[in-house]
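User: What would this chain look like folded?
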Amino acid sequence: MYKTIIVACLLLLASAARAVELSVEERSGIARVAEPVTCGVPLPRGMVKSPEELVLLHEDDVVPVEIRKVSLWPDSSLRWVHLDFQASAEAGGKQIYSLDKGPAQKVGTRLEVNENPRGLTVTTSRIRVEVRRKGFNVFDRVALAGGEGKYAQELVGPHHRGLVAQAGDMEYTAARDKSSELSVESRGAMRVVLRAEGGLKSESGAELLHYICRLYFYNDSPVIRLAVTVENRDSVIENKITLQGLQVEVPTVFREKGVAVYIGQADKDISSVLGGPGSEAFIQAGSSTEYSLGGVFQGWSGGDPQSRDSDRLGWIGLGSEKGAAAVGLRCFWQMHPSSLEVVADEGMLRAGLIPVRLKKTVDLYSGVARTHYLRFAFTDRNDHELLCSLTAACQKPLTAVAEPAYYCRTSRAFGPLVERNLALYPEENRALVRRVEEEFDKGLLNMLSMVKSRTKNGVTVEGFGFLEWGDGMHHIWVNGDKDPRNIAWNGHYYDLPHITALEFYRSGKWLYYDYFLSRAWHLMDIQVTHFAPGNWMNGANRYCPPTDHVRIDPADPRDFTSAKVFVSNTTNHHKTQGLFDRYYLTGDERALEVALKAARYAQSFGAYSDFIQPRGAGFQVLTLLAAYEYSGDKEYLETAGRTFQLWRQHFAENEAKFTQGYFMVGFLLEAFTDYYNITGDKQVLDVIRQAVDWMHVNRPYEKYSNMALGIGLLASQPDGAAYLDLEKEYLETWHGVWDNPFKDFGLNGRGIARALYYFTSEAQGAH
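Assistant: Here's the prediction, encoded as structure tokens.
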């Protein structure tokens, strides 16, 4: 239970009965019509105990919504819920909703899931989709709704394509795997999620990659979202697969001459018609600075997607009097090489996650995964504006967000956290708080600029590409050499996604939201390792900084080829909170799946006994507490407690509390602060006090701002006034812009957002 002061309790009780105001903002300049929205909302402790006690309103009208329990407070009231509803918005517009206490309204759903002889059939009232269980091919059949509940017009018929890969001049497909699995992962009034899992196999049955594909269907909607993950589960970590291609292919009925084809351009959509056999149309991004068009669009100009930064890029569609089909690929150019293609011969709708036509390969090492998010639409109207609205929406899907004051002081879901509002602080503390927050913003802008281009030791690197998107360059080992094995990446040092998620909650700034989501996406796929269940490395983390995304530092810094592929067998580089953040805020099941896998890995260590590097214990405990707060599983909390008791014993037996890794002490203090906030164990305060006092006396010249949170907790105690000045000393060292922009922002920025709480009038008035 969070240790809150009397004033906070009164504020919480007063606010518990208030409605949660949620804003849905269109940020792509593309009008949306009945777009499915999935979002997470934290609730104050004690507000409600069941989703049935909540109602969603828009302009006083009840909105059909599905509300799901996500996590609970210790008193069993709801802490987080996920909402699924549908929203419309003008281009650049905003709609306001209200989540309030009230009797739940029954949704008149037409969304159904039924077994069929080959798998599952989902009907939404707009489309009927059959999905195969064995030999998964994404969609086996898609038909449009006709009159009297019939689905007469078939747009997709049985086929053997779906998820396809090429390597070693051989083709592998998911459709060849006759042992694949298909299940209903989630079923509700507004949304159904199917989960398919299996292998991409050759004609001989050899498996290249493991895949997990989630298909999202929505009540009364023509839209299907796909989250497609491929994993290299080879148990030999040095092994890699050189992918020549990776596609999602859906053959359609649009094969005749004269079929209309549409492509989203940066400024506007363009259209043409397909000719006879062999006719095609495509848009492709070979880099972050160039996209081009071809086929029937040959001669149309492409451009620089990075400079134009348009969310209209990244969708393609085709249609006739039979109807229309389209697909959008999220982060189309950011995760280059990529393509979107239509081929007349089979009416093929193809999303090239690694397009064969570009002849660019990607090395996928053992333990590495990559997830792509696609949005398909099947409609009875051959209308390019409608197709654009339905599929280009994948770039910035509509979501519902609350005000910073609600996230922070009303919900209290993040413990001691306050929004950016200088009026919450006494006058004497405002200058420091203002400077700290300004430095956060400067640091974020600096990191964003370094994603676009960073030069070090004569090599310029960008943070765009199949493996690169979501990360940033850390170091170049040998001057002037662009070999990928010479490039060290940040690897999300100290859970940079979590740090920026907290700053989104505090500020409400979309820049933090977008940065956090892209970093958590990369952490989920690349930094956490993915092997078969039972492999000890499954759920571990890569070493930071990961050279070539997967390697430890070179044994000889003058020879980058001496950097070995490596999986960390400790929790020194573990980071999981950003994954839980992504799940809470967006409902991304893949993020939760990976977060829990990483939590089980951290749990496997039991009491963590490495006293040399405090970050190992710190990040193990932070992971375990995040898993406990999500699941309520007390084994996570008990293991965190055993690690704390080991450190308590270590402090009792050793005059030197730390022998190295002094910059890591703040991570340990943050973990123990969270453990105290949950358990109220007074022994924790004594251990934190010993750590702070020892560092202050023995390492006075090493002041790291990441210690501010632990010091602030001491300052909040009845006898802790002197620690408030010490906390200020440590926060004065915080800067957002560093020579090493990503690592040092993460290292020094940990805990600061919550440390500021102890300077508020509320915290200081508690005594």
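The two ends are 20 Å apart (CA to CA). If you want, I can go into more detail on any region.
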